[in-house]
Amino acid sequence: MENSEGEKTGESKPAPQMQQLCRFFSQGRHCNFGKKCRFLHIRDDAKAHENKTVRTPSQSDVAPSHSEVPGGRTNISRAAPAAGRRPCRYFISGHCTMEDRCRFWHPPQFPQVDDQPVPGDYARPVQRMRPVPHPNILHEVKLCDLTEDVTRRLRDTEIKQLEKRFPKDKLIIQERSDGMVTYYRVTVVATDPDWPFDLKEIDIMVSFPDNYPQEIFTLDIPLDQDLPPVMARHVQQASCEWLQAKHATNQLLGKVELLFRPFLRWLDRTLERLFTEGARQLKKDIDIEKAGLQFIPYQELQATVCEKSEEENASNERKVEKTEGERTLEGPGCDDRHQQQEEEEEEEEEEEETSHLVENIKISGPHRGTEVKLLGLRLGENTATVVAQRITVCLQCNRCKITADLTLTGRTPCTAECEKCSASINAVFRPSMLHQYSDVLGYLDINNAAPADLVLQDCELSVGCLSCSQECPIQNISYGQTKEFNCEHCHNKLSILAESTRFQYIQPRANQTG
Fold first, then answer.
1. Calpha distance 486→491 (Å, rounded)
2. Cα 200 to chain center, whole Å?
3. Which is it for strands 449-454 and 378-379: parallel, antiparallel or unpaired?
4. Which residue in 469, 466, 452 sits closest to 496, CA to CA?
5. pLDDT digits (tens, 9 = 90+) for 171-210
6. Neighbours of 467 (CB within 10 A)
7. How far, CA to CA in Å, does 509 sit from each of 2, 116, 274, 359, 383?
8. Could you say which DSSP state residue 509 is in?
9. Reduced to 3 states, what is the DSSP secondary structure of residue 306?
10. CB of 395 within 8 A of CB of 381?
11. DSSP-H helix ranges across 120-228
12. Helix, strand, coil: what percent of the chain each, to 5?
């Protein structure tokens, strides 16, 4: 009866499309029905794999997979997983700890691991092909291999890539009247999605010399665009410095490189920083113009002084030649006239000396002794000037190397004695004016001691307000912390920040005569 029922049950089990798992056997527990159970006795992971595969297991794949083991549990033979043809990945890799008890297929002769089918749960990593450079495009060449033909090919490649990179509406090609130099004006657009400025593009003009890339290309920022001239000059200066540094590095490495595409990548990364620095410089110029001041860069002042000195030297040489010619023509008997000319020349020399003193007042004036400079100085928007009324300096004795704090007031000499060796120490502080273009706090004249540190927290400073042109005192300034306060007169916000202090001894200059 049992056999007949078992046959009936076997015949009534035609391998349904979706048969439920026995929850006891799938969880590793004992199933009381054994092989009479009408649910499928396989593990959860094997069932999941069968559901994922396209092939539907037949009755012959499932029926012989049940066998009784001691304890009443059923064991799955290797026929069921073999029917799914799912190999054991541990056996394929070299060793399977389950050996004959493994419910996956152990093939007797298996191919290499790369040829095995990959399970659905594990994706084989994609092998990336190495980029193959184009054989006809040159980007960098060693200096030893550089010839005129290679130089010409590199230059033509750079120009072709430039014309191909920019569309026609953002590229303007201009030629000089003689046709020797060609200028390419392109529009560079910022690619940063979080661009903070309203102006998102900048026009640059480049020209490639005949010996490019042995020589860097010329770069200009046209002034006929929406970018302010101050910001345009700042971007051009920073770009030229980067190009020169890159070219010098390539020269040290013994190679030449096409620099236009790397320059565009650098410009795209640093354009926000360059715009920010240029905007700060523009704001300083606007504030100075509002205050009625005019800032002349030191380079321009030095150039004008050099031009004046050259003109004066040329005029003096002409005068000397003229006087010598007159002396040879007139001969003796004109001593009075020569004396008058000599007096006039002496007066002119005195005027020249006074003019040189006025022009070089920053160099020959208070620049002596030990310079006290505040590094990382940042003044607020309405902060015009800062003057030290009293400072506290940590001095180190030259004899016994003992340090002690000494408080100095502007232009008042102070005398002290060392606590250990009783050496006499003399010190005088000459204050200077701090502003946006000068970070020198003042100068120290010290005898028998050397400055070690400036106790900025104990210094008394006088801050000038740019709005009301009044001064207000300030104390308790710390290094690396922005001191913010309000003006006592107009209540505008003022701020000052200093990172550290540097002492630099200035060598005395010899007196120039004549």
1. 5
2. 20
3. unpaired
4. 466
5. 888 887 776 778 899 999 999 988 998 888 999 999 999 8
6. 16
7. 122, 85, 39, 17, 34
8. P
9. helix
10. no
11. 148-165
12. 40, 25, 35
